[in-house]
Design a protein that fits this description.
The protein is built from eleven helices and 14 strands. The chain has about 350 residues and is an alpha+beta fold. It is rod-shaped, with a radius of gyration of 38 Å.
Length: about 350
């Protein structure tokens, strides 16, 4: 500031009366936390400033005013850019300070059903159902204390009373010189409903599989057992509770006495070495069929099994796991062996017959 320049000449005419009023308050002993004005540039043009002032005391009287002036151009440009971005954002954006809303964007108003006047200055928890407020409060405290903050799911409530699932993300910021929380408010109600529908379909699938006549096994992409039905329990003697969630080929032990890949693994990884262990192996599309002898089944008595395995897909066509149906064909194999024997041997002498030669 040029020495001797009248303070009121620095600001635009529209701000001069307010500058005089604030100056009189300072001279009367009031404190100032900063006032914002629009200042004039010497070469022309204007720029925003913040003025922090205090009275000069000489003896028992106020002799003048001292203060500092801060150029707010960069801050105002940042605020304008933030406002433009938030106004165009498809995500609800808000700023909380001292537990109260200080800023809300149009999308936040749309998602909550409130007007700006109904939210600004009000407690932020008003848009959260009572049961989820404590968790949201703790998450905000952890953020302000510098602890790591993860996206937080909670149930929001609109002005009309509708309950919506919300994914909230938070960041600690400085707003108008004080610490505040910048939050994003993302409505994930449809996603949660889709997840619940998927879980319901999954439960229905498991319930259906439970009563399949064939022993049935499902594994996920990590090779962990997802389903092990009643027929599988009866075949292997292994309870579902002892197999669900286990991986590393644990499901092969009841059949072979060791951990090793089986037909269901070849569906996911297309392991040709595994397929070569099966007789009559064939592939139709994504489905594999094969027969194999399993020496450890039925407490070491062994059995011939027929298996059919197919991959499982999600809605986007990605493989999420595999399912295998297993059937005991020991009696059939024994009958086939007996028929073959009779066709090549004389029933009275047991010697090879003409067909053999």
């Amino acid at each position: 500031m040029k020495k001797g320049l009248n303070m009121f000449q620095m600001v635009i005419p529209e701000d001069r009366e307010m500058t005089r009023k604030n100056s009189r308050r300072i001279l009367s002993g009031e404190k100032s936390n900063g006032n914002e004005y629009t200042a004039l540039r010497k070469e022309g043009g204007t720029f925003p400033i913040a003025v922090y002032t205090a009275p000069i005391i000489r003896g028992n009287r106020t002799a003048g005013i001292r203060g500092i002036i801060i150029d707010l151009t960069e801050r105002k440009q940042g605020e304008e850019m933030f406002k433009t971005l938030s106004d165009c954002s498809p995500i609800g954006v808000y700023i909380i300070q001292d537990g109260k809303f200080q800023f809300v964007n149009p999308q936040f108003l749309k998602l909550t059903g409130y007007s700006k006047e109904e939210l600004l200055g009000k407690d932020s928890i008003m848009v959260i159902i009572p049961e989820d407020r404590e968790a949201a409060r703790k998450n905000t405290i952890n953020l302000l204390k510098g602890r790591r903050s993860f996206p937080h799911e909670f149930r929001g409530v609109t002005k009309s009373g509708d309950i919506r699932w919300v994914l909230g993300t938070y960041a600690s910021i400085q707003y108008q010189g004080k610490r505040a929380v910048l939050g994003n408010y993302i409505d994930i109600t449809r996603l949660k409903q889709s997840e619940e529908n998927l879980r319901a379909a999954h439960r229905q699938l498991l319930d259906t599989i439970e009563f399949f006549p064939d022993a049935t096994l499902i594994i996920d992409n990590n090779g962990k057992v997802v389903a092990w039905n009643q027929a599988m329990e009866e075949m292997t003697g292994v309870r579902k509770e002892n197999m669900i969630g286990r991986g590393e080929y644990a499901y092969a032990v009841p059949f072979y006495g060791e951990r090793k890949p089986i037909l269901i693994d070849s569906v996911i990884s297309e392991d040709r070495e595994v397929e070569e262990l099966y007789s009559g192996i064939k592939r139709k599309g994504n489905t594999l069929y094969g027969e194999i002898y399993t020496p450890a089944l039925y407490r070491g008595r062994g059995a011939y099994l027929w298996g059919k395995s197919s991959p499982l897909f999600d809605s986007e066509g990605n493989i999420t796991g595999a399912i295998e149906y297993i059937r005991d064909i020991t009696e059939r194999k024994q009958a086939e062996t007996q028929l073959k024997y009779l066709s090549l041997h004389d029933p009275l002498t047991g010697l090879y017959n003409r067909n053999y030669f």
